[in-house]
């Protein structure tokens, strides 16, 4: 306990000295009476669906009026070629669109958005390459633990990653009721909640409140976001647990049999530094409340508005059989 207090006091002292030697001025968007558009989009290679979220924001001015999202026009281009957008959901303040478009490494994605009463916004990004990773799995009670391993490329830079795990329930049925076998296969995607953690996070990381692994909703699904230690690491291991669904015989009779099997696909993404800081802002609420650090503000990389457009490189494990499968 004594050591904990000493280390915490040392950190506070460093922040206090830093703040007495410099001053940071944050310009609040109070001048405009019109709102701005917030756009969020994270395209990735190897994924067939990309979502574009648009939100209407209201300025901080006292007499500002909220303007609904009317006359919305959204353009999505890949290498200068337009992609068709469909509506996923829409409301007075928020709209979510999607496009079915395959992306590969090196593709340039650009998005522009316009709406009545709002300045037009735009941004662009290039799809990076997918990361290399190792994978080990084990069954622990009601969970399957996935151990993702990353080896340092030796360039001395920090690298940022994301991970998703998709489940698919496959029902194989055979019926002999007609005297000859009749086969059918039904596949049902299943969302899997993630519990991710890094066993090597030091006690000091917890003190300064710099979370190095979080879970965020990215491109329509939950993604674990994490970083390596840059020049200070040779290998990074991250554990991700998902619920275990056993293979089983769902139905058997004299003429019919239905077998349920579960398959998994592990996706790992390379993330740009600005996108990682946008998804995982480094905030220490204790120091913020004490006035020792300035409020965090990130307007992203959307020209004329707020939000983030950042492409991700994707690698995946392919479909993996269940642990302890049935024949």
Task: Please explain how this structure is put together.
- The protein has 327 residues and is mainly beta.
- It has 2 domains: 33-128 and 273-313, Immunoglobulins (Immunoglobulin-like), CATH 2.60.40.10; 130-271.
- The protein has 4 helices and 20 strands.
- It has helices at 2-21, 203-207, 273-279, 285-289; strands at residues 37-41, 49-56, 73-78, 81-82, 86-90, 94-100, 108-115, 118-126, 134-140, 143-151, 160-175, 182-190, 195-197, 213-218, 221-227, 235-243, 248-252, 256-271, 306-309, 313-316.
- Strands 11, 12, 14, 15, 17, 18 and 20 form a 7-stranded antiparallel sheet that branches. A 5-stranded mixed sheet has the order 5-6-2-1-19, with no helix packed on it.
- The chain is globular, with a radius of gyration of 24 Å.
- The model is unreliable at 1-11, 13-26 and 202-207 (pLDDT under 50).
Which blocks of ≥5 consecutive residues have pLDDT under 50? 1-11, 13-26, 202-207
Percentage of residues in helical conformation: 10-25%
Q: Write the element-wise H/E pattern from the N-terminal end onward.
A: HEEEEEEEEEEEEEHEEEEEHHEE
What value does the Rg take, in angstroms?
Answer: 24 Å
Shape: globular
Overall residue-averaged pLDDT value: 84
Structural class: mainly beta
Largest sheet: 7 strands, antiparallel
Q: Work out the count of structural domains.
A: 2
What is the count of β-strands?
Answer: 20
């Amino acid at each position: 306990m004594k050591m904990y207090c000493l280390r915490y006091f040392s950190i506070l002292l460093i922040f206090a000295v830093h703040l007495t030697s410099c001053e940071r001025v944050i310009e609040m968007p109070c001048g405009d009476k019109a709102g701005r558009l917030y756009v969020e989009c994270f395209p990735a290679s190897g994924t067939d669906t990309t979502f574009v979220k648009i939100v209407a924001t209201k300025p901080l001015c006292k007499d500002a009026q909220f303007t609904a999202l009317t006359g919305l026009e959204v353009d999505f281009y890949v290498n200068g070629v337009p992609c068709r957008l469909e509506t996923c959901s829409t409301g007075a303040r928020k709209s979510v669109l999607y496009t079915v478009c395959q992306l590969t490494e090196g593709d340039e994605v650009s998005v522009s958005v316009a709406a009545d009463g709002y300045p037009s916004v735009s941004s662009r990004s290039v799809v990076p390459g997918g990361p290399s990773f190792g994978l080990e799995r084990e069954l622990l009670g009601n969970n399957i633990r996935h151990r993702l391993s990353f080896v340092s490329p030796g360039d001395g830079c920090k690298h940022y990653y994301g991970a998703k795990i998709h489940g698919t329930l496959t029902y194989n049925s055979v019926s002999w009721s007609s005297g000859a076998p009749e086969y059918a296969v039904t596949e049902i995607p299943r969302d899997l909640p993630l519990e991710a953690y890094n066993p090597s996070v030091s006690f000091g990381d917890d003190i300064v409140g710099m979370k190095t692994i979080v879970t965020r909703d990215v491109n329509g699904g939950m993604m674990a976001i994490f970083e390596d230690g840059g020049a200070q690491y040779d290998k990074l291991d991250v554990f991700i647990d998902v619920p275990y669904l056993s293979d089983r015989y769902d139905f058997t009779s004299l003429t019919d049999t239905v077998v349920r099997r579960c398959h998994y696909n592990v996706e790992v993404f390379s993330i740009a530094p600005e996108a990682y800081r946008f998804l995982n802002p480094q905030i220490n609420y204790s120091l913020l409340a004490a006035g020792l650090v300035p409020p965090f503000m990130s307007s992203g990389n959307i020209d004329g508005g707020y939000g983030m457009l950042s492409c991700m490189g994707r690698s995946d494990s392919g479909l993996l059989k269940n642990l302890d499968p049935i024949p």
